[in-house]
């Protein structure tokens, strides 16, 4: 988790979390393994004089966090709902002051490039591209040869017929 950028890394991918969603994650991490009550989240996320539907907004914010993490309420991997009380982070966490490592760029393999727009030439399709170029060149040479034969043929037959 990078507090300055309000983002987390999950399997090498960086996930940007917006304001209150990130604040919920911080609250859950700070009390990892313990229940963070809905009231704690309400006071942490909204000043006392704010007029909002706290229950709906807490639910929405926690659901946004679950969605970003790929979590669900039915089979929670990260956040467990404690009925009528609050939420609990159910994965172990570790703190470090070191910045998160920058993920290495992906390796250019055909399996890695499938469905990735903007990539034309990869190891997986280089032979297909070279084959297509060869076919185009072959067609051009054959076309030139046929054109030369055609011109030679009509030049010879045209002059033979008095044309």
- Sheet having the most strands: 3 strands, antiparallel
Strand content: 5-15%
Average pLDDT works out at 76
Given as residue ranges, the uncertain stretches (5+ residues, pLDDT < 50) are 109-117
Number of helices: 5
The first-level CATH class name of the largest domain: Mainly Alpha
SSE ordering: EEHEHHEEHH
Principal-axis shape: rod-shaped
**Structural classification:** alpha+beta
CA-atom Rg in angstroms: 32 Å
The CATH superfamily of the largest domain appears as: Winged helix-like DNA-binding domain superfamily/Winged helix DNA-binding domain
Strand arrangement, major sheet: 3-5-4
What can you see in these coordinates?
With 163 residues, the protein is of the alpha+beta class. It folds into 2 domains: 7-89, Orthogonal Bundle (Arc Repressor Mutant, subunit A); 120-163. It is 46% helix and 12% strand. It contains 5 helices and 5 strands, in the order ββαβααββαα. The protein has helices at residues 19-30, 38-45, 54-69, 110-113, 126-160, and strands spanning 7-10, 13-16, 35-37, 79-82, 86-89. The chain has a 3-stranded antiparallel β-sheet. The chain has a two-stranded antiparallel ribbon with strand order 1-2. A hairpin with a 2-residue loop joins strand 1 (7-10) and strand 2 (13-16). Helix 1 (19-30) crosses helix 3 (54-69). The chain is rod-shaped and about 100 Å long. Residues 109-117 have low confidence and may be disordered.
């Amino acid at each position: 988790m990078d507090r300055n950028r309000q983002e987390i890394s999950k399997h090498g991918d960086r996930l940007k979390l917006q304001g209150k969603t990130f604040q919920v994650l911080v609250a859950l991490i700070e009390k990892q393994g313990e229940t963070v009550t809905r009231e704690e989240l309400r006071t942490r996320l909204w000043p006392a004089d704010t007029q909002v539907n706290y229950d709906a907004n807490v639910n929405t914010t926690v659901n946004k966090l679950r969605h970003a993490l790929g979590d669900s309420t039915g089979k929670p991997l990260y956040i467990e709902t404690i009925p009528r009380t609050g939420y609990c982070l159910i994965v172990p966490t570790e703190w470090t002051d070191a910045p998160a490592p920058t993920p290495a760029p992906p390796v250019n393999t055909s399996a890695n490039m499938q469905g990735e727009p903007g990539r034309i030439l990869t190891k997986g399709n280089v032979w297909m591209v070279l084959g297509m170029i060869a076919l185009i060149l072959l067609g051009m040479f054959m076309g030139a040869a046929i054109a030369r034969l055609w011109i030679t043929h009509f030049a010879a037959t045209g002059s033979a017929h008095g044309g």
